[in-house]
Amino acid sequence: MTEPELVIASSPTDAGIGCWDLHTGAEHLRHRTCSSPSHGLTCVGGRFLASSQLRETKSSSGSILYWSWNKPQVEVKSFPAEPINPLVSNSEGTYIAGGGASGEIYLWQVATGKLLKKWHAHYRAVTCLLFNDDQSLLISGSEDGSVRLLFDDLRANIRNLVDIRVFDDLLRGKARQPYEFSFSEHSLKVTDVVIGYGRANAIIVSASEDRTCKVWSLSRGKLLRNIVFPSIIDAIALDPGEDVFYAGGRDGKIYIAALNAVADPNNNYGLHILGFLSEQSKAITCLALSTDGSLLISGSEDGMVRVWNTKNHNITRIFRHAKGPINNVVVVRQSSLMSNRGTVNSQMPSVKRHGVSLPPPLEKCANSTDENDYKAVIGPRIDPDRSVEASYISIQSLSNQILELQRQGSSAAAEMEIERLKLDRSRSMQMIQQWETKFQSLHQFCVTELLDGEKLEMLRDTVL
């Protein structure tokens, strides 16, 4: 049975936030007053929606707004020291990260609103942010054409790090020197970044206004594949099986690019491009996939949200989002909403409206007492000839954070421990589903090869 999921979409033109049931098409509550930048909309642990806002005037510093699920009005307003473009939350909803117009990246604790860290990651505006699957890395893209990876450890072990370097507590004593590299092959603004599963061995795909998508190896820090498209790509979505990825172009087409799938080098679309989806719409601005990867959701400048079947490439549903273009699409499982509503820690400061408790506003960046200048960082090189224990980083990092909160007497430690166990179970189930899909594909391939071999033998016997 398909798990209920919500599609959430926003616009840069103050058209609010639209919510629909992905499978039935029923429209849920529409949230008002939202002018979000691209990558500026996120669901925080299934508890509430958060969005950065475009500046109303040149003198404005911008804002970050919170909405609860059962009210259309803005509940909480935060005013950072500079405009925030991309906004992202980790899967547990314990932290929010934002990318500034100056190239700074900020990390806040959701329960308290406290500014925990600030990194000087880029020399131009940050355009996109995301956490990897085990939440140990924060990946950013920028107008300067670079992709940077920041290690999400909140303890003092990152205070002396330099650009593109990381020393985990478990490895610092063993590593003689860090493995150093930078994802800086794009010649123009980075428009989107996605990362696959596999933790330390994951792949990263980045899109840019230079009309390319680049596939990187996280463990080796090398460019694996460079794919040139007929149009500028503003959005990408990675298939759960990681055989292909989808790239939304400004020409209104959604290109299907090969990762592990076989591409015909003589096709009309370009090397590694399998084909495209199109309904003659305006530019594709954002993409998202359903949990099982069977449905692809696209947002466009024509104000429409389209749902595509990834198997037959047909449109199954269309949602209309008031006036203005769409620039953000997020898919949220409804079970996570039901289980997390109202679970904000009651012992933490909160803003209450009609019985609904939301966290307090985020601390203004200028109030931070942290005087250190943080740089973008990445983990040490993984030797491909050795077995890799890929989970040690996230487990150690999260355990350190829990211990730190316990020392401070924070009741958030128990909540984080529970969320960690839930997350581990969810990831295990997802990995099982992926391996089952891989097994079925491999089994089908073997059966096909066997049948083809038998037919060939029969043909030879007939000829002889």
Notes on the structure:
It is a single chain. The chain has 464 residues and is α+β, with helices and mostly antiparallel strands. The protein has a single domain, classed as Methylamine Dehydrogenase, Chain H, CATH 2.130.10.10. It contains three helices and 29 strands. It has helices at residues 334-340, 392-407, 412-463; strands at residues 5-10, 17-21, 41-44, 48-53, 63-67, 76-78, 84-89, 95-100, 104-109, 115-120, 126-131, 137-142, 147-151, 190-195, 203-208, 212-217, 222-228, 233-238, 244-249, 253-258, 273-278, 284-289, 295-300, 304-309, 315-320, 328-333, 351-353, 356-358, 374-375. The strands form eight sheets. It has a five-stranded mixed sheet, with no helix packed on it. A hairpin with a 3-residue loop joins strand 23 and strand 24 (304-309). The longest helix is centred in the C-terminal third of the chain and has 52 residues, at 412-463. It is globular and about 85 Å long. Residues 153-181, 340-349 and 366-395 have low confidence and may be disordered.
Task: State the helicity in percent bands.
Answer: 10-25%
Please name the CATH architecture: 7 Propeller
For the biggest β-sheet, the strand order reads 7-8-9-10-29
Instruction: Let me know the CATH homologous superfamily.
Output: YVTN repeat-like/Quinoprotein amine dehydrogenase
Total tally of structural domains: 1
Mean pLDDT reading: 77
Can you tell me the residue ranges where pLDDT is under 50 for at least 5 consecutive residues? 153-181, 340-349, 366-395
Q: How would a textbook summarize the main sheet?
A: 5 strands, mixed
Strand content of the residues, in percent?
25-35%
Give me the Rg, rounded. Answer: 23 Å
Total number of beta strands: 29
Q: What is the SS-derived class?
A: alpha+beta
General form = globular
CATH hierarchy, class = Mainly Beta
